[in-house]
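Structure (tokenized):
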């Protein structure tokens, strides 16, 4: 150690301490680590907090040492000794006195902190410093904590992985009022999402208490979290985001987050569309982003497509020209995906006019016209669901390709006496046809050449007699069909392949 350092620190000679600044930085650089170790011994003595002479000597020496480290750029060489002295401060009282004056060890910690953490772009130094730095967040010194948070935020920019291991400590510090550290969370989220997710509800509750910059960092955190596609985050943040959309300060970044979510979880936004519509009417300049959300939800299924299109079309007619392109793209994308909504007129509508107002009117008219392609679709869905589950009394189900058929004999009303049940559930025409066959057997026209031979013969020979006998017991066709039910089912399936159910037909052409 340099002779002057040995004199000043060894004898705690305050009168000679100022002479250290007369020495060249390079002259004392080799003595800095040893000097730091000697300062640690002095500051750890039992009477240090009451010994003003020792405190003054230590403060002057630390100032000279940190200056020399900066000027010679030797922080990596002396970092271990510097961090060791810094760590020793944690063993002492750091809370300010009633006069808001820092304690002696808080002063040492503050001076060393600035020297160390200004080198946030040096990973070897940060690897030593950050585990010690986060410990100061809970030592009751607000000024020290605030300054520490500033430096940790800088460290998070270049070396977030070093902070990630201390995410839990950082989150707890934020919840205790150190909102400045919110800027650290977006940087460490990818490395340690779970500690943040566990406290996400509590973090969101801070929003109204935060200054505008801290609010922005909290929303940045949600944006990063939304990109990870975690369901628990989506469920917690969507109501929060929608609720804060009315604040024009942050609605741009909030909509960016919602668009991110809409890209992979559009159904989660479906119930919030009325609120989004209200906000769009209040802030027309947001319509471009709103259109993307409506477009994403509209691609889920045809029902949601039909519920989203009227809003998009109405905005096409009323919005300024800068939004027409995005609106038209979303409308066309939805109608291309579900072509039955506009039918063959789709291309004609989009090509018909350069007037967006005219296109909007045509689209509105077509949507109203097709509201009924909607009722038919629901009917088809119901028919499919019913026929899939349809079964005969003996539990037998016949399936073939896309056509499924099943007859329950208990539901056949051979007397035609007004029973509501139909032999083909959901097919009233089939019911009327069977029920009327007793008195008018010629109504049923079966392609006899395709019938099994036994069915054909009995049908030709015995059908005329059914009109003159008690039907329940003497209708030979009915009895024969009952006995040969499996063959009739097979025939029905074959016919179904050749002749589709009416609900499955479409009209082509104009």
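Design, position by position:
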């Amino acid at each position: 150690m340099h002779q002057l350092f040995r004199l000043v620190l060894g004898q705690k000679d305050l009168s000679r301490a100022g002479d250290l600044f007369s020495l060249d930085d390079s002259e004392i650089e080799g003595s800095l680590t040893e000097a730091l170790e000697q300062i640690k011994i002095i500051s750890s003595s039992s009477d240090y907090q009451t010994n003003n002479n020792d405190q003054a000597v230590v403060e002057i020496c630390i100032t000279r040492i940190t200056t020399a480290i900066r000027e010679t750029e030797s922080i990596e060489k002396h970092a271990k000794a510097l961090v060791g002295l810094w760590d020793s401060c944690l063993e002492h009282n750091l809370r300010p006195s009633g006069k808001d004056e820092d304690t002696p060890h808080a002063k040492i910690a503050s001076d060393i902190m600035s020297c160390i953490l200004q080198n946030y772009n040096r990973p070897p130094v940060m690897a030593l410093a950050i585990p010690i730095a986060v410990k100061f967040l809970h030592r009751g010194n607000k000024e020290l904590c605030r300054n520490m948070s500033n430096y940790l935020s800088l460290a998070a920019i270049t070396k977030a992985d070093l902070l990630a291991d201390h995410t839990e400590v950082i989150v707890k510090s934020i919840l205790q009022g150190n909102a400045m550290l919110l800027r650290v969370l977006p940087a460490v989220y990818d490395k340690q999402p779970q500690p943040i997710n566990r406290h996400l509800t509590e973090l969101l509750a801070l929003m109204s208490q935060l200054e505008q910059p801290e609010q922005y960092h909290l929303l940045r955190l949600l944006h990063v979290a939304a990109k990870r596609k975690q369901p628990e985050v989506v469920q917690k943040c969507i109501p929060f985001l929608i609720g804060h959309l009315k604040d024009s300060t942050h609605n741009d970044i909030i909509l960016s987050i919602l668009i991110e979510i809409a890209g992979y979880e559009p159904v989660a936004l479906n119930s919030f569309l009325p609120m989004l519509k209200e906000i769009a009417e209040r802030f027309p300049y947001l319509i471009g982003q709103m259109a993307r959300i409506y477009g994403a939800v509209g691609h889920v299924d045809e029902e949601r497509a039909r519920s989203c299109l009227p809003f998009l079309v109405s905005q096409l007619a009323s919005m300024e020209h800068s939004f027409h392109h995005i609106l038209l793209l979303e409308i066309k994308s939805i109608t291309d995906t579900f072509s039955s909504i506009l039918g063959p007129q789709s291309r004609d509508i989009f090509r018909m006019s350069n007037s967006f107002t005219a296109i909007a009117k045509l689209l509105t008219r077509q949507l109203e016209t097709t509201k009924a392609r909607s009722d038919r679709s629901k009917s088809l869905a119901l028919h499919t669901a019913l026929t899939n589950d349809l079964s005969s009394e003996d539990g037998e189900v016949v399936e073939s390709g896309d056509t499924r058929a099943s007859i329950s004999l208990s539901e056949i009303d051979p007397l035609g006496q007004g029973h509501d049940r139909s032999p083909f559930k959901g097919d009233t025409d089939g019911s009327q046809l069977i029920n009327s066959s007793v008195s008018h057997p010629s109504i049923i026209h079966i392609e006899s050449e395709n019938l099994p031979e036994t069915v054909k013969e009995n049908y030709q020979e015995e059908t005329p007699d059914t009109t003159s006998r008690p039907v329940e017991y003497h209708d030979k066709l009915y009895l024969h069909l009952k006995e040969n039910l499996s063959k009739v089912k097979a025939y029905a399936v074959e016919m179904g392949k050749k002749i589709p159910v009416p609900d499955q037909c479409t009209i082509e052409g104009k």
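Reviewer-requested clarification: The longest helix spans residues 52-72. Confidence is low (pLDDT under 50) at residues 390-472.
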